[in-house]
Specification:
With 170 residues, the chain is an alpha+beta fold. Helices cover 35% and strands 34% of the residues. A hairpin with a 6-residue loop joins strand 4 and strand 5 (132-145). The radius of gyration is 17 Å and the shape is globular.
């Protein structure tokens, strides 16, 4: 999925670089970084849609084979099968929904790793009160290039709490 987006993004990458104040003729590394950024943001859109679809296999497909999912009140899920089972358990919770959005993405110059951070909202129905309960928090996802050349999540960590505020301008 990410590889396909990268191949169609050169024009968008140049626009992104120009908007960020980069030179009008970026070097190959800058162009690759911009393409990777665009691909990760596009994947984020697909991943949110997959959460909305309720398909655990589609959600788990965003993770690498040896990935780790770390969420509050649950043991760490190691590997594709454990991640899919953890996701399915969440999806089986009545009224469950999950959305997230990154606010910062750092990409290695080599393009083979990236780190995204942002905020999430999780909603479910509390079985005791039968009321909808929402929780917000922060997440960090670490992406690594897989053997097929695609960036996939290697580690995904969430922590509940108020959504972080963006620092004010100096």
């Amino acid at each position: 999925m990410i590889k396909n987006v990268c191949s169609t993004a050169p024009t968008l990458a140049l626009l992104l670089l120009a908007a960020c104040g980069q030179a009008s003729s970026p070097d190959a590394a800058s162009l690759q970084t911009a393409k990777t950024f665009i691909a990760l943001k596009a994947d984020e859109v697909h991943w949110n849609a997959d959460w909305k679809s309720g398909d655990a296999a589609k959600i788990a497909a965003h993770f690498g084979d040896k990935a780790k999912l770390m969420i509050p009140d649950a043991p760490a899920a190691d590997g594709a099968a454990a991640i899919k089972a953890t996701v399915q358990q969440a999806l089986d919770t009545p009224g469950f929904s999950f959305t997230f959005s990154s606010d910062k993405i750092n990409i290695a110059k080599s393009g083979d790793m990236a780190v995204a951070r942002g905020v999430y909202t999780e909603t479910a129905i509390d079985p005791a009160t039968r009321q909808s309960n929402s929780q917000t928090g922060s997440f960090v996802s670490v992406y690594k290039t897989q053997s097929d050349g695609r960036l996939k999540v290697q580690w995904y960590i969430t922590t509940p709490g108020p959504a972080p505020t963006k620092p004010s301008a100096p």
